[in-house]
Design brief:
OB fold (Dihydrolipoamide Acetyltransferase, E2P); 441 residues; Rossmann fold; globular; 6-stranded parallel β-sheet
Length: 441
């Protein structure tokens, strides 16, 4: 029997998919990347914001077509949308045969078996008790992987449904994380990205304090993986120890993903973000002072309930003043079950207009930041070859997988993915850089 798999959403969701894939392989199922030849297709959904829900529903309808027009025997929905809407998925989509919540990922083999027997199946075990970690089938390239160090969230931002979907914050024991890192190193991983809903809170629940810095130090002591990268850090939990570890440890990328969401104190308070504008400015200043080459990535929400023209102007001025290396902008998505859902909403067109303004400003900043890299030599992790542009491409320490820009470069034939290359930059194209390979490691 062949299993097709569609995984949507963030890397944290992707890791759950990889665990389920491994359990299916161990049960004797064959995996296929072609849904048209699958006996069962599993859709691991995201349900964080409206656009993600729409993408999940579109995929469900697309795969459901295969049940009517091809030989597909079963359709299973897992992930955040499944957890959030549970039994209503079976009611609204009769083509779906099974629904598993995020606490039931280890029941995937049982679900497939029931579906192949022609039965409907649901499972919603306690999400706060699901076993974290476990063997995986990597869906990332063999030279790069994600490593989940914690699950759930206690921050309770008023716009966010994640705590109700993913449960309370819980860290993985340090020894489990290190053991998994060693396994990934043995598979050839050159870049390991640490993820959680809030990586900076790692360890507080089981060790009584923020232990991300200690974890990074031990990971580099216990492995030889060249690059460690951290995503999803909160400004109010950036410790001096973490800054020092990033500064002094050559194998920790000088890159931090620091979602700020806004800078106007009134908006931050309504969002229930911990720490105001003064703290955010202080943290950014300290990072840049202590780690001169640090790359800061952040995200902002525009159009949050109550955001005034003055608030938005303050945000634009902040972005233009700070000149962040990477910025993601989202229009506020009204999510049922969250406190912000009941707040007075802003017109959709105003949200879109503010999005366009801020993204236009950031594009200019990006180009100017990139122009400073002209004629410099940058270490790049090669990811592949693009036959259309007749160039290799990859990422530097300053670029996270899937979300940041690329560096395109020419060089000798036969540079393999996962190879480190020095590239001299000679051109800027919006968010991307171009250059020539000068050294292959």
């Amino acid at each position: 029997m062949k299993i097709g798999f569609v995984s949507l959403g963030c890397p944290k969701n992707q890791l759950d998919a990889e665990v389920m894939l491994h359990e299916l392989v161990m049960a004797g199922y064959e995996l296929t990347a072609d849904e048209t030849e699958a006996d069962v297709v599993i859709i691991n959904t995201c349900g964080f914001i409206e656009s993600a829900k729409k993408e999940a529903i579109d995929n469900i309808l697309d795969i459901a077509w295969l049940k009517e027009n091809r030989d597909l025997k079963g359709l299973i929905v897992t992930g955040c949308l499944a957890e959030r809407y549970r039994n209503s998925i079976l009611e609204e989509f009769p083509e779906v045969d099974a629904v598993l919540g995020v606490g039931s990922i280890h029941n995937i083999v049982e679900a497939v078996g029931k579906v192949l027997e022609g039965e409907k199946y649901t499972s919603f075990e306690d999400k706060n008790c699901v076993r974290l970690g476990g063997d995986r089938v990597l869906t990332t390239p063999e030279y790069a992987a994600y490593l989940k160090i914690a699950e759930g969230c206690d921050n309770r931002c008023t716009y966010c449904a994640i705590p109700s979907i993913r449960g309370k914050f819980r860290s993985r024991p340090m020894e489990d994380i290190i053991a998994e890192a060693k396994d990934l190193e043995a598979l050839g991983v050159k870049e390991l990205t640490l993820i959680a809903q809030d990586t900076t809170k790692y360890g507080q629940d089981i060790y009584g304090g923020y232990k991300l810095a200690e974890l990074l130090h031990k990971l580099t002591e216990e492995t030889q993986i060249p690059w460690f990268r951290i995503l999803y850090c909160y400004p109010d939990k950036i410790t001096d120890e973490l800054i020092a570890e990033m500064r002094d440890n050559d194998r920790v990328c000088k890159y931090i993903d620091l979602p700020m969401q806004h800078i106007a104190d009134g908006v931050l308070k309504k969002m229930n973000r911990h720490g105001g504008s003064a703290l955010i400015r202080e943290v950014v200043a300290k990072l840049r002072k202590e780690i001169p080459d640090v790359v800061v990535r952040t995200t902002f929400i525009v159009g949050f309930p109550g955001e005034t023209d003055e608030d938005f102007t303050e945000l634009c001025e902040f972005v233009n003043e700070q000149r962040f290396e990477h910025v993601g902008v989202f229009t506020y998505s009204r999510e049922e079950g969250t406190p912000a859902y009941k707040m007075e909403q802003i017109d959709e067109q105003i949200k879109l207009d503010r999005y366009d303004i801020l993204m236009r400003d950031q594009l200019i900043i990006n180009e100017e930041n990139n122009e400073k890299k002209l004629h410099k030599v940058i270490k790049v992790l090669c990811e592949g070859y693009d036959p259309i542009s007749e160039a290799y491409y990859g990422r530097s320490e300053a670029d996270a997988p899937d979300i940041d820009g690329k560096i395109y470069f020419t060089g000798k034939k036969g540079i393999l993915p996962g190879t480190f290359v020095d590239v001299e930059i000679n051109e800027v194209i919006e968010y991307d850089l171009c250059g020539v390979a000068t050294k292959i490691y």
